[in-house]
Amino acid sequence: MSLKDFFVPELLFYNMKAEDKSDYFTKMSQKALELGYVNDQFEVNVKKREDTFPTGIQLEECAVAIPHTDAEYVNKEFIAVSVFEQSINFASMEDADAVLDVKLAFMLGLNQPHSQLEVLTQLMTLIQDNDKVNALLNAGSKEELEKILKEL
User: Domain PTS EIIA type-2 spans what residues (predicted)?
Assistant: First the structure.
């Protein structure tokens, strides 16, 4: 399955406003719950997992985050993409004491063990491509963000 098959238009956010990562998790979880992608335990568990296993990744030119939680909280698979209006602090995956200014997040909702490794591999390839990351960060609208993701 291709990475682009996991992107859901209703879960793509351009210039998303969030006070901090907790606010971001709440907004994303509520929207995914409303759409039937997750159950009501997703939010608390994505927050818990992020506290234990941070997902911030420092790239060459910016930082991204890939928050997720266990399959049991996901009804339908998805990848939610958020380009933040203002950067949000996430702890680094490599050093939990390091704080990263994240401008782009990919929230994963995966419930099939075989797809998890494949999706993470494809996503890591994507975020290591500076041109593609810059295109996402510089999208001028939600429609442009969606178009870029469809062309991956």
Answer: 5-152
Q: pLDDT tens-digit profile of 64-118?
A: 999 999 999 999 999 999 999 999 999 999 999 999 999 999 999 999 977 788 9
Please tell me the pTM assigned to this model. 0.96
Q: Which residues pair with 99 in a beta bridge?
A: 91
Strand partners for 81? 12, 106
Buried b / exposed e across 13-39, counting CB within 10 Å, b at 16+?
bbebebeebeebbbbbbebbbeeebbe
Classify strands 63-65 and 99-109 as parallel, antiparallel or unpaired.
Answer: parallel
Architecture of the domain whose range is 3-146: 3-Layer(aba) Sandwich (3.40)
